[in-house]
């Protein structure tokens, strides 16, 4: 019966407001129409309207529903005040997410200041909870009721009360303690915001967690206010870490030179420099540059560059005129609250960041970044070359990047060499210059450089010349080693001699074995073809920049730490990136336990579980590194016909706790150390000391 009455009412209303209905329907249909050109032929069939087929059906359904609601006496479209809303186009998201009936939505009963029976989850400080229960009054015939005063709630801190059911005497219970250091806030709110910054979830991640847990969440304004507080503490801790790192570097340099450390003396050091961006491509709004010491591998300085300010963006959208925004912006910039510190292109951030870091190195650390390890195509070196006036900044090349040049040169040579060679065959194919052989030559080229590098902080000119000569000899040896020859002694005359040589022929000469396979070589026609490439990549100037054996691997490592805290698939403001960078510096130096010192600065001290979790994380990190190091050494030695014995050493420290460390040692061929157990290649020795 109800359905018939509704349909009857709809028909009557439709007849009474026919003109109004047709006008509204016409407007909805005409929204977004496209005029056809008179010179264009009419398309056969139904023209494309820009709407998918299934979306048309949904839109028709929504239009029918809107017609019913519009035709009722209480219709919003029938009134002039809301007629503009009916003219708005319907978005795809609105079609998918239809608003539910208001009767199904839960009422906001906790927002009206009432004291009601609590529900959902809350984060409660156990100390405060225990003390409240011990003080709570309860009559003999009554029991305790737990209620919440929502008007006194502050983020994740709830104001609860324990009330006696018999006499109604209540005892207040605040679920978190108050913190007055660096602003007024609650302990639980600071911890929650600090966690969201460390994990990269941000405010939306915290809201999602609270909604799933059925918990009230902190407001957006309070969240970003706490971000400012955490940023101050995080950057202060990172500054202390970098100051200590610079002091350790100075001590190392003076020790290498055999001199006494003097605080007033400016020291010349080698550093690795690299830039990273928050977004892939050339449109990133935020970039970060790092300077790391080559000798100690620690961060000396960093800088965050930003082309966006969240407050400026929000204020500009609210201001009605440009003049109003400009007046506000002048005051905003003068108060040092604006996050914009760069206005150029995104690729130019790297060079600008290098200028800033080099200009303040002497003031901060009494250090001059004289040797700079950077990318081959980086413009940063040209920007800082004359920073120290009389002391020129010298460029060093990353060995990893230089090694890749060999592979790129050979791949380009293979792709550009068309037709057949002098022997009537193409450059590629079986027994020719394949991708596998190119990678092998590239690996040999990297070893020729790495095995002759100097680890001294300030090598002499003679030591550099000797290292460059040895590198050249080994690089030329790779070319002759890879080309087939009838005279094996002449073919391998440049290869390193001895049992530890990478050349199997030289190994056989030293050990008296027969493992070398002469068939695995390129034909002689490749000698003249590959010679220009080897000559180019064995130039003295190039190899001099590789003598230190420096790489940018540490820079890539700390870059990964930053974007683990600020994932690139999500947008993050400048302050969130600054927090992530400062946290990465602390974690890079001191591990997960560095969070404990930051929490002390924030007056949210780390407890037992915090320290246990940090210790476990650092232990896993060290164990993983040791395991990878031993496995890499084992695989490398086994490929040369050697055995690697893994020694597990067990000892007891001063407090009587057992500590197990993983150590690796090498034994050539079948030499067997004392104390071995088992007969397999992977041996284990347990040594107590």
TrEMBL record:
Compositionally biased region (Basic residues): 32-45
Highest taxon of source: Eukaryota
Species annotation: Paramuricea clavata
Compositionally biased intervals (Low complexity): 71-84
Region (Disordered), start-end ranges: 32-116
Annotated Mutator-like transposase domain residues: 120-503
Feature: compositional bias, Polar residues: 99-116
Cross-referenced PANTHER family: CCHC-TYPE DOMAIN-CONTAINING PROTEIN, KERATIN, ULTRA HIGH-SULFUR MATRIX PROTEIN-LIKE
Name of protein: Mutator-like transposase domain-containing protein
């Amino acid at each position: 019966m109800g359905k018939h009455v509704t349909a009857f009412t709809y028909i009557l209303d439709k007849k009474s407001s026919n003109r109004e209905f047709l006008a509204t329907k016409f407007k909805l249909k005409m929204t977004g129409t496209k005029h056809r050109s008179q010179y264009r032929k009419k398309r056969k069939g139904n023209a494309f309207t820009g709407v998918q087929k299934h979306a048309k059906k949904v839109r028709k359904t929504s239009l029918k529903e809107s017609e019913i609601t519009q035709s009722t006496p209480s219709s919003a479209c029938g009134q002039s005040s809301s007629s503009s809303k009916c003219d708005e186009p319907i978005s795809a998201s609105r079609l998918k997410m239809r608003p539910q009936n208001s009767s199904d939505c839960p009422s906001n009963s906790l927002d009206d200041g009432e004291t009601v029976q609590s529900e959902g989850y809350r984060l409660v400080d156990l100390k405060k909870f225990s003390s409240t229960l011990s003080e709570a009054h309860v009559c003999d015939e009554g029991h305790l009721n737990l209620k919440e005063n929502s008007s006194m709630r502050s983020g994740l801190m709830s104001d609860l009360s324990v009330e006696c059911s018999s006499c109604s005497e209540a005892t207040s219970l605040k679920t978190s303690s108050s913190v007055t250091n660096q602003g007024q806030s609650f302990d639980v709110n600071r911890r929650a915001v600090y966690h969201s910054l460390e994990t990269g979830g941000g405010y939306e991640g915290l809201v999602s967690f609270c909604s799933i847990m059925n918990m009230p969440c902190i407001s957006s304004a309070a969240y970003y206010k706490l971000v400012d507080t955490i940023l101050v503490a995080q950057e202060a801790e990172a500054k202390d870490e970098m100051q200590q790192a610079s002091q350790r570097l100075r001590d190392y340099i003076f020790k290498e030179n055999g001199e006494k450390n003097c605080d007033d003396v400016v020291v010349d050091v080698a550093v690795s420099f690299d830039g990273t961006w928050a977004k892939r491509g050339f449109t990133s709004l935020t970039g970060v540059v790092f300077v790391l010491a080559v000798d100690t591998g620690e961060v000396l300085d960093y800088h965050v560059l930003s082309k966006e300010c969240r407050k400026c963006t929000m204020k500009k959208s609210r201001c009605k005129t440009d003049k109003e925004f400009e007046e506000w912006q002048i005051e905003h910039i003068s108060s040092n609250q604006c996050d914009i510190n760069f206005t150029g292109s995104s690729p130019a951030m790297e060079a600008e960041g290098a200028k800033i870091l080099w200009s303040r190195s002497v003031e901060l650390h009494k250090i001059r970044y004289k040797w700079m390890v950077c990318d081959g195509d980086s413009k940063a070196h040209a920007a800082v070359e004359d920073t120290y006036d009389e002391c020129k900044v010298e460029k060093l090349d990353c060995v990893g990047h230089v090694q890749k040049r060999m592979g790129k040169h050979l791949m380009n040579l293979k792709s550009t060499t068309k037709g057949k060679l002098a022997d009537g065959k193409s450059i590629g194919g079986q027994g020719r210059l394949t991708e596998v052989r190119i990678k092998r030559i590239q690996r040999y080229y990297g070893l020729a450089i790495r095995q002759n590098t100097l680890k001294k902080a300030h090598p002499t000119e003679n030591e550099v010349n000797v290292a460059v000569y040895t590198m050249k000899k080994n690089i030329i040896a790779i070319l002759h080693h890879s080309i087939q020859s009838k005279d094996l002694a002449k073919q391998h005359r440049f290869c390193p001699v001895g049992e530890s040589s990478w050349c199997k022929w030289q190994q056989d000469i030293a050990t008296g074995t027969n493992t070398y396979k002469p068939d695995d070589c390129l034909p002689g026609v490749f000698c003249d073809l590959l010679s220009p490439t080897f000559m180019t990549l064995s130039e003295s100037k190039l190899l001099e920049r590789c003598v230190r054996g420096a790489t940018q691997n540490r820079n890539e490592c700390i870059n990964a730490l930053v974007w683990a805290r600020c994932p690139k698939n999500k947008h993050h403001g400048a302050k969130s990136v600054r927090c992530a960078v400062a946290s990465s510096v602390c974690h890079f130096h001191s591990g997960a336990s560095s969070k404990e010192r930051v929490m002390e600065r924030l007056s949210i001290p780390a407890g037992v579980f915090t320290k246990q979790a940090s210790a476990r994380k650092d232990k896993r990190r060290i164990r993983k590194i040791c395991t990878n190091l031993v496995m890499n050494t084992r695989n490398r030695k086994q490929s040369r016909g050697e055995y690697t014995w893994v020694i597990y050493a067990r000892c007891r420290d001063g407090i009587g706790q057992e500590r197990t460390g993983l150590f690796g040692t090498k034994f050539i061929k079948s030499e067997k150390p004392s104390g071995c157990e088992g007969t397999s290649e992977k041996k284990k020795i347990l040594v107590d000391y």
